[in-house]
Amino acid sequence: MAVWDLSVTVEDLGSDAPPVTISVTSDLHVGGVIVKLVEKTQIKRDWSDHALWWDQKQRWLLRTAWTLEKYGIHADARLVFIPQHKPLKLGLPNGITVRLRACFSNPVFQTVMGICRMLNIRHPEELSLLRPVEEKKKKKDKDLTKEIYDLTEVPLSSVSRPCLYNGMPAHFADSEKMEVIYKMLSVTQPPPAPEVITKQYRPASVVDKAHINGRWLDSSRSLMQQGIQENDRLWLRFKYYSFYDLDPKYDMVRLTQIYEQARWAILLEDIDCTEEEMMLFGALQYHISKVSQSEPQNLSSNAAMDDLDSALQCLEVKMEGESSSATDLLINVVVCFRPKRLTLKGYKQYWFKFQDTSISYFKSKEESIGEPIQQINLKGCEVAPDVNMAAQKFLIRLLIPAPEGMNEVYLRCENEQQYAQWMAGCRLASKGKSLADSSFQSEIQSIRSFLAMQKTNSGSSAAASDESINTHSLVSPRYHKKYKPKQLTPRILDAYQNVAQLSLTDALMRFLQIWQALPDFGLSYVVVRFKGSRKDEVLGIAPNRLIRIDLGVGDVVKTWRYNNMKQWNVNWDIRQVAIEFEGNVNIAFSCVTADCKIVHEFIGGYIFMSTRSREKSDTLNEELFHKLTGGHEAL
Amino acid sequence: MEDIDAMFSDLLGEMDLLTQSLEQGTVPSEPLPTIKKELNFSIGFTDLNESLHELEDNDLDALMADLVADLNATEEKLAAEIQGLDKPSLPPPDLPAKGPGALPAPSGSSPSPRNSTGSSTVTPPPASATSPLPPPPPQTTKPTKEEMEAQAKADKIKLALEKLKEAKVKKLVVKVLMNDGSSKTLMVDERQTVREVLDNLFEKTHCDCNVDWSLCETNHELQLERTFEDHENLVEPLLAWTRDSENKVLFQERKAKFEVFKNPQNFYLWKKDKKTLKDMKDKDKEILIKENFSGTSIIVPDLEGVLYLKEDSKKSWKQRLFQLRASGIYYVPKGKTKSSRDLVCFVQFDNVNVYFGKDVRNRYKAPTDFCFVLKHPQIQKESQYIKYLCCDDAWTLNLWMTGIRIAKYGALLYENFKTAEKKAASSSSWTNRSTPSSSSSSTPSPTIKAKAPSQANGHAPKLQPGPVPQDFGDLPPPPLDDFLPPPPPDPALPPQPPSLLSKPAAPQRHPPDSFPLPPLGLDSLPPPPPPPPLSDSESPPDFLPPPPPNAGFGSLPPPPAPVDSLPPPPPPAAFKGVSQSLPPPPPDPHFLPPPPPDPVFTGAGAPPPPPPPPPPAPAAATPRAAGRPAGSVKKMPPAPPKRTTPTLQGGGGGGGGDFMSELMLAMRKRTDQ
């Protein structure tokens, strides 16, 4: 057989170095080419990660047993000998960039699996990579100074065998630097400064939202094939809103990153919510940031010990409840009040006493031994603050249910201290808890810290110390315009009282639950043109259904559920997706803002997600994923 | 009839006495009044007397049975608590000396589960605290004086806590209207859920137990109606009724209650055409339920539509476009879009329930008859805080009311449905099995449960040799001063508990138990007739004097032997059962004056313990058993006097405050350790 010369560029020799030329025959297999090549370079090193890339055809020669003939390689082929893993700058859902070595030769699906293994995120099938939105030039300068966490030193071999050490993968336990990175991954970021939110790109319409989905990489092809270069920037995001088996015990990084993605989706109005919901999201963000700062993660806390502790605590509380000192804690405080109906009369001073879940008031301290003028049980009542620090106004508004309706009562406190105590007491009592409840002190604390926020917010708007958070950091820019931080504080505090007692993971989970309960949750939009229609419409792809949105009306005009779907096809020649549903319903559309492969992958991906079940959840059925999402290329 | 009335008031009197004495223990002033009030408060009657007169004979019987059952259950609980206490209290002193730290652990673990379960229903937390501490069982026969004192104190504390808890439980006599116009009267305590009351009614009515059976409340004044959710406690909403209200509780089949789980498509795919909905395959229904109720978040049907809203305090109705979201009901303000950010919150669900409004056309000139109402459960009369909304048709009304319930209760609804389904599936066998009489004896389902376990325990208790040893040590010599050193109880006892050695001791102590639990009556003991039990309960004190442990010892056969002879169940097994059921712990406890119990225990335990140094293993076993043994013992003695107990308690109660602080100290020490 004829011997001919094959020239190969070896990247490691430097960009200026001439290609290495070796003599080959057409029946030589790729493995043999590599051996010859390595011998010729005379460099001793570990070449195991290197492979041949065929530049003209944009493909990897990964099958080392295949001959050159089988690959169709002739003397004119430009081959490059390069490592399969290269550094990549990866923007995480929490906005932080890490640099790590990712696989450039396998399909992106596997690349993501590798990245997730390194970052300790389970269920990598829910994530994917997308090209970032170009940033405005001004910001670029700033970005360069932004810290990048470097993970390129992590040996790839250690990642393939994950074992936990101190609750984190062993490669994070190697050094302090690595531990810092793990903390960044698994602990939520502090609320961003309001300016950061305002400056970020916000989609203004459904069509805007659709554009982002054109950026997803193709899961069936490699990074190299999609033109991604070494050190390029990509985003890692949760793509499929179907979070399987989320367990805080194993999923701290995953949970944290889902939360971050959800938080940004809400702050940037990627998903719409009502004002009440926004306040609750704000309250949860505040609580989460507070708790995650103060609560070192005790991942290894012993469940049995917890039980015992809580049992003991419960007992103590019970007993405290019986001891008079605790019950009468607020006995000697004077406040004023007025029933609302006597508006004109203003406030009158009484001697108040707080006991169990009731308040009673007397004409004076001296008479407080006898019968009160009135006793009011606060259980089930609504408590609202009416506070103005500057004016030293500390009002507690109580809406007390009675058979005849709700009675409105105002308590006016003299100072911050008194207000915090009584407010905390009222809040607990409204939930049927007495002052002896263990949460009383923490309730007081949280009320005071909110008061502190009001104080600082009236001054500079950017102050974001531990104690005080600018409430504009917790809501979308729409509310920056609508409310001053001072006005937002009481509203967020109002929502906060319902979540203040949650643990960190419970608060994270609650945030995700409310997010998932939003009507538009889980929708990824693509602008399409339906067959037979002459105008653009929007297709919404959700975990369980497809919706058709009329851009003119802005309304959902049709819904199709996957479980009624009989089959779907892509005509790759005319780039059209055709779907058949039960009952002889057929739809077909071409895609405008995204390649039809992306839509195909979304639909197939969600069907794949729904096939996951507990029994087989251990191993990821990669083959099935590619079958469902790959299209003709996979076959 | 009059006789019955007399009996009934006697019974109530007894209960009052009991509760009073309980109250004395710790909460001097408050509890007493409350309790009385509650006892007298009956739902569906103008006053207690009337309610009693209205009772049919058989109802009365049932009610009495309930009351008796309650008493028993209370006693059992107390006994259990006390036993639990013994162990825990011991540990501190013991540990240093004996140092068998290992042993306690196992026993401790077992108790803790109990506590957790128990606490949810009946048992108070204290039990849990105690459990962790299980002291080493194998003690010398003679406990040190310190130990005994500690023990005694712990007992008292436990008892006091239990009393407190018990004293605070509200009970209502509730008249429930049946479909056929008849009615049943039940005693419901505040811990009972609607589900439990339903189960109870199933037993009484022999209905088919299908999932649609519901309890509903009607508000006469406002002409409202609402189906209680199965997880709700029944007493709480009833307490919101005004005294003179004509509100009623109905027992009816309500298709709407769980319709969403039978035909989820009608709610989640309501926009589809009728035929598609009707032809929905079961598999697709399952998928819908899974999607909406089994994920991390409960999904609320996306409802949106024009409803009529009654304007405040006017008889005019205004149309608005409303939207249901998980966070509440919103409407689209005039001239705004439907976008989420423009929605105005109309109501959130934390503080309101959803009702069906009747007769609204006449009352409020409503545009349709299909009206739902949102109000705070405590509001019972006309008020501007009640919100009325009208739908165009019955189906839309159903959609909204169900949607609101899903938003308000979330996963609980689905849990309720699954429980109801299970109940329905097992109902046939259930109904067949339970004879009317049996059911009556255990009217309140909760109580029933409690009893059942306790009974089972009853056997086990005897077995519980383990506990005995411990107790033994403590008890024998220095019966606490507080307690009655009951001198010659033995003589009295012997007669009663002839059969089992172990029993004798028990009987003395636990007489109270015996009355309540006729069934418990150990083999040997002739179970006293149910009625007598009551009287017995009061008398028990006399017997109480625990027989000297030694005596018991001698008489008693070696521990193991007794076990074998003992009735049936192996103690450990029984124990487990108990622990699960725990909530309603052993019945006996309550009555026993705390101090006395120990002595008794010892007596009871004595039999097994005879071997002074009990093997560790047994010891472990014993702790668990401890609770039961007491129970069993009690059963033996026919007629002990609950009353006496109360008095005793009263004595003990005097020191209540101290005990509390002592207990706290003890707990702290433990935690420190």
What's the structural blueprint in terms of helices and strands?
The complex is a heterodimer of chains A (635) and B (673).
Chain A: E1 3-10, E2 20-25, H1 30-41, E3 50-54, E4 59-61, H2 68-71, E5 79-83, E6 85-91, E7 97-103, H3 108-119, E8 127-130, H4 137-145, E9 148-150, H5 156-160, E10 164-165, E11 168-169, H6 176-186, H7 194-199, H8 206-212, E12 233-238, H9 252-267, H10 275-294, H11 303-322, H12 324-327, E13 333-339, E14 348-355, E15 358-362, E16 374-377, E17 382-388, E18 393-402, E19 405-413, H13 416-430, H14 440-457, H15 477-482, H16 485-496, H17 504-516, E20 524-530, E21 537-541, E22 545-550, E23 555-561, E24 565-571, E25 576-581, E26 585-591, H18 596-610, H19 622-629
Parallel strand pairs in A: 1-5, 6-12, 7-9
Antiparallel strand pairs in A: 1-2, 3-4, 3-5, 6-7, 8-12, 10-11, 13-14, 13-19, 14-15, 15-16, 17-18, 18-19, 20-21, 20-26, 21-22, 22-23, 24-25, 25-26
Helix pairs in contact in A: 9-17, 10-16, 10-17, 13-14, 14-16, 18-19
Chain B: H1 2-25, H2 31-40, E1 42-43, H3 48-54, H4 57-89, H5 91-98, H6 104-109, H7 111-121, H8 125-130, H9 145-168, E2 171-177, E3 183-189, H10 194-205, E4 213-219, E5 224-227, H11 235-239, E6 248-253, H12 259-262, H13 265-268, H14 274-278, H15 282-293, E7 304-310, E8 317-325, E9 328-331, E10 344-347, E11 353-357, H16 360-364, E12 370-375, E13 387-391, H17 394-409, H18 411-433, H19 436-441, H20 445-463, H21 467-474, H22 489-492, H23 502-509, H24 511-514, H25 531-538, H26 549-555, H27 560-565, H28 571-581, E14 588-589, H29 597-605, H30 616-635, H31 644-654, H32 656-672
Parallel strand pairs in B: 1-2, 2-6
Antiparallel strand pairs in B: 2-3, 4-5, 4-6, 5-11, 7-8, 7-13, 8-9, 9-10, 11-12, 12-13
Family (chain B): Belongs to the MRL family.
Pfam family, one (chain B): RA_2
Biased composition (Pro residues) (chain B): 123-140, 475-498, 513-534, 542-573, 582-599, 606-618
